[in-house]
Amino acid sequence: MSKRKIAKAMVQSHLYTVAPDFVSNCHRDGTKIEMNPEFRAVCHDILAKQGYSNPGTRNCIMNEAWRDLGIQKTRDSFRKKTYNFEDCILYPALNNFPLTLDQARLVASMTADLIFINRPEVVIEDNKRNGLSISIARDGKQVILSPNMMNICTLCHELSHIYLQQNGDENTGHTAKFMAIQIVLLARFCEDSFDRLLQLCKEHNAPIDEEFACNLNQVTPEL
Ligand SMILES: [Zn+2]
Question: Is residue 130 assigned to a domain?
């Protein structure tokens, strides 16, 4: 077990000891919980004794500990970074061709077979977040494409979320694993080189799980 895992386990067991009812009755709905200051102070103490002298790191470990227990939602911490990388670097470097709904459905089915997931439904719907059109991957079952985002890159992006959702990943947001799946799909459907896309991610410090990407790329047959 790593030093950090041990430290996390220590604050978790402290929480179980002082507040067993809280842990078992807590609504695991992903709302950020507020721990009382005395309790936090003790946790800081525990972590400091484990050699974590930086309070920021200690907070980080505590948040991870609560997330692991399922009482605090995993933050989609790479979302902004991923969007920036996609919009400014990755998608412009690709042949991002437009799709009709029928084509999108065909690609979704082909992708599902390629990466061993259940075929999702694809629909067009105009959804907005903060006034901007968005596409959505819902419950591992449905890809909802915005009418003005009918293109291969958007579809591959949403299908990567579907993969994580179907495989029961705790974090189905824009993780390093998410990007790994995405570049495997983009390499296939944009007829680009997987190695080139991997290189692009690394050059621009985009979060990517390189090992997962290479493994998935290897087991995924050519189109
Ligand atoms: Zn996304």
Answer: yes
136 CA distance to ligand 1 centroid (A)?
7
Ligand 1 center–CA 135 separation, angstroms? 8
Q: Quick check: is 205 in a domain?
A: yes
CA of 152 to the centre of ligand 1 (A): 14
Structure tokens at 11: 């604050």
- 92 and 200: one domain? yes
Average pLDDT over residues 23-42: 68
Would residue 19 count as lying in a domain? yes
Q: How far away, in angstroms, is 169 Cα from ligand 1 center?
A: 15
Confidence of residue 77 (pLDDT cuts 50, 70, 90): confident
Percentages (nearest 5) of helix, strand, coil residues in the chain: 60, 10, 35
* Mean pLDDT estimate for the chain: 90
Task: Give the total number of structural domains in the chain.
Answer: 2
Q: Give which of 44, 41, 42, 63 is closest to 52, Cα–Cα.
A: 44
Whether residues 58 and 167 share a domain: the answer is: no
Query: How many angstroms separate the alpha carbon of residue 28 from the centre of ligand 1?
Result: 23
With bands split at pLDDT 50, 70 and 90, how would you rate the model's confidence at 28? low
pTM above 0.85, yes or no: no
Is there a contact between 88 and 203 (Cβ–Cβ < 8 Å)?
Answer: no
Q: 127: domain range?
A: 79-219
What is residue 222's three-state secondary structure?
Answer: coil
- Distance (angstroms) between ligand 1 centre and the Cα of 18 equals 38
